[in-house]
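pipeline: protein-struct stage 2 | run 1193 | histone acetyltransferase
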Amino acid sequence: GAAINGLSNVLLRGVTLDPAIFSEEIKATIENSLNHLAKVVSSQGIGQNGSSGSTMEHEFTASPSPIPTEHLDGSRGTTAETADQPETLLVENENGMEQNDNPDVDVTLQPLQAQEIAEAEKTRVEEVCDVDLTSASPKKAKIDEHNSLNSTNGENENSVMAYQMQNFEHHLLQQKTYDSKRKNENQPPTPPTLSLGESSSILPTEQEVPQSNGKESEAENNDEMDTDDGATTSQRETDCCEKEGLMYEVSNLMCGNISGECRIREGHEYYKSESSCYCALCFNSQEINPSDKAEYRHEVHIKNIKEEILRCVLCKRNWHKTCYFEETGIAFTQHKNALFMCTCLIGPLEEMSTAESIKETRLSQDAEKDVNMKLQRMIPNLKKEEHVLIRELSYVQAEAPISRLRFPDYTLKQFKELHGNSVKYRKRTLAAYQKKDGKVQLFLMIFLQQYRDLQKKEGNNWQVLQYLDTVPHAQRPGGMLSGTVMNSVMYQVSRMGYDKAFVWAKPPQQGDDYVFNKHPKSQEMPDLNKLLLFYNKSFEHAEAAGEIENVETFEEYFKNKKPVTLFDIPMFHNSLWDIMINWADYTMKKEKLWKKGTPKHQQIMTVMETYFQKHKEDNFFIGFKNNNDRIDEDEPEIVTVDAGRKPKTVNKIFSSRDEFLTLCVRNNWVFSDERHGAFSTAAITKHYTDMKKKEELAANAPAAPVPPARLTRKRRA
């Protein structure tokens, strides 16, 4: 009923609507109403001069609709129904004026008063077939851009877009009126004059509404809402599901204890300042000045971030972002320019980029093929849906300077003789995906480093497994799948000439996030023994496949190379021994172990020996077989490490574990369960592909003209 009333007001003002936007089921009802409306208008003298008479002869013909039928909300009807829902339609019967709750019943519309009709004739504008967006608001421009996607019928599309653009402002206005009526006001306020870029065909009218019959106040007192179709529904936080008060899980916080091993877990008390935080135990035991302690505030580490609720700007329905994703496949992420429109929007939905759309590289192609061949051999009944997709998200050239920020000053001379003033290396980030229950799940990420001619030795080429992180959202989660992906990626890198590898088995603590933001609580983090078992079994499979020639622990690798000096150990940026040498230097200073007469780089070995014993089995030196199937290495993007602020390219963001994790935390992209994992996978993929497109457009854009240099006179001294 609201649809007919709204349409009648539109048609009276000379706008011809495309019949393709309506569903078949209400065409008959509107046809009957328009016929009756034509008689009413004729009795008022409208259309006698031909200025608006053609509007009344609106015929519903069978024409191809530019709108896919699957995007029409069947429960709410067509666009007109959704857009003008707050309107109140009046009918006349034996008992006088009543509200009509049955849209299938032929109705008699209230005729406009003569004065209103005269005003409408004065302000009536011609039919709008297209809208100039230069003077339109950003929200209208967003709708125009959204509806122009995948258009195949330009003429029909323009009429649909024009109607939607105009109806958007009209709907917002009528919604305010409707909300006001819900607050027990007998009459809604008079709508202000609408304007759409100085040309709008929808003009405000004062609608007569029946007096409140008390249902609104009764429903409000009972915490219920009376809907337009007469149904009564309970007020809920969202319209998508019955779940309320959803909160994001929390991860461990790092305690400021210098050991780096202390954690602040969920439910624990801690003390926080602007720059650091300590668990309660460490805070009380730390040597902190009383004046500095006053800057810390006492807190409890609990869930405090509520899951976002998206409010549609058109129909005002509330959605959880994950519910909307399950309904539409669109991973909507809020930001300051975001405009959320739910399933009520007419027209093609936004197309989401998928992992398959990420450009393949030689490494990702070979690794994906190798992984799936191995899985097929290990699992004879492997399903097609279990295909593992691998994509390379980043490949950059990096440089780590030899400086005091990395090594103690008394070692700089020797390290510069070995490496030069800096060490150049390459960084790669690869991701593995698999479909589960129809949704693509990102379940594994690998961060690699590659060093060519390390220590200025030709052919001394190393690859370093810096980070490997997983979430159990694959179809067959576990060590077999993760180990197979790791072996295949590292073997394909070895074919590029990096036939030596270094791996440090550093287990996370329960509740830690290395790469993925918010692991599932049910995911058990392996301790050191379980992690070593995983690596040893994985390497055994690679040896059996003829990919690895030998695997040695630190103790085995340096068995015949004693005594070991600092300069015998391969130093990889931010890896085990790169870190341990600084811990040894700190220990020497704190415990005042320095002595005169002996070079410090020799004295420090007394502490380093203890670290050699502690880590003799948790780091591996691997040699790959040269099977004479070398492949050429492609060239990476150049990104300088720790050399000032640089533009955040997609390669730079995804090459750094810290930046990737920060990106996920900032946008609340979490992997705490499969539902959120699928959403976050889609959101990350969209962010990645959008950044890639922007970079390609910027690279192909014509260079801006260089302004001529200005000549200035030098001032006299």
